[in-house]
Amino acid sequence: MSGWTLWNLPFFDSGHADLAREVAAWRVQNHEEPSAEALADVCRDIALSLGKAGILETVVPQRDANGGWHLDVRALCVAREAIAYESAMADSVLAMQGLGTAAIWLHGTPAQQERYLDRARRGEAIAALAVTEPDSGSDVANITTRAERSGSGYILNGAKAFISNGNFADHYIVLARTGEAPGARGLSAFIVDTGTPGLAAGAPMEMMAAHPLSGLTFENCRIPMENLIGEPGQGFKVAMATFDIFRTSVGAAALGMARRAFDETMSRVTQRQLFGSPMAQLAGVQARLADMKVDLDTAALMVYRAAWAKDMIGGRCTQEASMAKLVATEAASRVIDSAVQIFGGLGVTRGSLVEQLYREVRATRIYEGASEVQKLVIARTLLSEQR
Ligand SMILES: Cc1cc2nc3c(=O)[nH]c(=O)nc-3n(C[C@H](O)[C@H](O)[C@H](O)COP(=O)(O)OP(=O)(O)OC[C@H]3O[C@@H](n4cnc5c(N)ncnc54)[C@H](O)[C@@H]3O)c2cc1C
Fold first, then answer.
1. Are residues 116 and 133 in the same domain?
2. Are residues 218 and 264 in the same domain?
3. In a domain, 253, yes or no
4. Which residues line ligand 1 (CB under 6 A)?
């Protein structure tokens, strides 16, 4: 580093650098990739460990002195970057505790906040967010899971797909159609507790990298009125407020994985001898290293600009969050692809770190809005600013 570090940038205060150091000291117990069946236990253990270390406070805030809930998005990104550097699976556990509670701390009632947040922050209860359906992923406004008014609550019917923590969460934030208006304005958000009669989780899915995913079905699930989050018809807004915070942090997680691949690469190019000298001497390798470094710094600047904007300017910051996720996840994928290339045969050997990172980073360009969806969001915000 040429005399200054990321922490000298005006996006941060001294607390962020301290947090980065503390989080970087956290270690996952076992680096082996668990089978899909074993993931539930592994993720529960990780959640408890992250809770004990206080790291879950970066995704499930404490109530502040004024009775409000404020999440520092820079701290969230710093934590996700450092945890993803250590373990992509641990990053998923960290992120889901936030994604599966944000609707509650942003829009929930005091009773809901009292009931769900402390245990999630300690890692004792596992949270999940269920938006995607077999026939609607990118097009969130098109979901068909229905919640119909019945007596003093709702009856929920439908199916969700690709739900992180799907088969072992203690509660799910579920987006369902309640029909106040067509499309996005006719959705509501609910808390569905595990054990609710009619709720069933599918078998754990086999993914290209270990990630705890399964589908969910709801068959005449009775949801009490007190489990509605916010107003009926506000579910899309509730979900988008969550994504507005967490989208930027997907970029931070991808950046953490890319930094790990880059550090591995730097040590490889100085040790590996090629054509009689360390491969770092080859011009082609140096050009690749330069490209990787530019990608890393570009990703970091976009992520921390968006996080700073959310913290210091406030409001929606949708465009900045989408740009951060788009740029950082695409850049991280290029960096890790370059790492694989520089490692040669070892890079494509099952079990090598860069091979694992190559598989792990891939999904970041798909979940919480694929790259193409981020471009759509960026263009829409640009055009709406022109009106
Ligand atoms: C590891 C992982 C974890 C996940 N966790 C969760 C979770 O916890 N909760 C949850 O609700 N969902 C979760 N998802 C689901 C995820 O959000 C969806 O997969 C994602 O939104 C894309 O939806 P889809 O898979 O249905 O793809 P589709 O919507 O069918 O889109 C397919 C592809 O089409 C392209 N595309 C989409 N829109 C456009 C457009 N407007 N213009 C051009 N091209 C476009 C993109 O390349 C996209 O990848 C997870 C997915 C993965 C892979």
1. no
2. no
3. yes
4. 129-132, 137-138, 162-164, 211, 213, 363, 366-367, 370, 372-373, 376
Ligand 1: residue of 89, 94, 129, 132 to mutate (most ligand atoms within 8 A of CB) is: 132
Phi, psi dihedrals of residue 312, rounded to the nearest 5°: -100, -25
Q: Which two tokens stand for residue 26?
A: 């956290």
> What is the Å distance from ligand 1's center to 366 Cα?
5
**41 inside domain:** yes
Range of the domain at 324: 237-386
Instruction: State in Å: Cα 137 to ligand 1 middle.
Output: 5
378 in the same domain as 276: yes
Q: What is the pLDDT of residues 35-45, one digit of tens each?
A: 999 999 999 99
The pLDDT of residue 4: 65
Q: How many angstroms separate the CA atoms of 212 and 93, rounded?
A: 9
For ligand 1, pick from 325, 373, 374, 376 the residue to mutate: most ligand atoms within 8 Å of CB: 373
Do 101 and 176 fall within a single domain?
A: no
The CATH code of the domain that includes 211 is: 2.40.110.10
Rounded to 5°, angle at Cα 119 from 115 and 120: 105
Q: What is the band of 5 on the pLDDT scale with cuts at 50, 70, 90?
A: confident
180 in the same domain as 253: no
Active-site position among 57, 330, 360, 368: 368
The DSSP H or E segment spanning 16 is: helix 14-24
Has 231 been annotated as catalytic?
no
- Contact (CB, 8 A) for 82 and 256: yes
Name the domain boundary from 70, 103, 126. 126
CB 378 within 8 A of CB 322: yes
Least confident among 68-72, 161-165, 186-190, 321-325: 68-72
115 and 164 in a common domain: no
Length of the chain in terms of residues written:
387
Of the two residues 45 and 386, the one the predictor is more confident about is 45
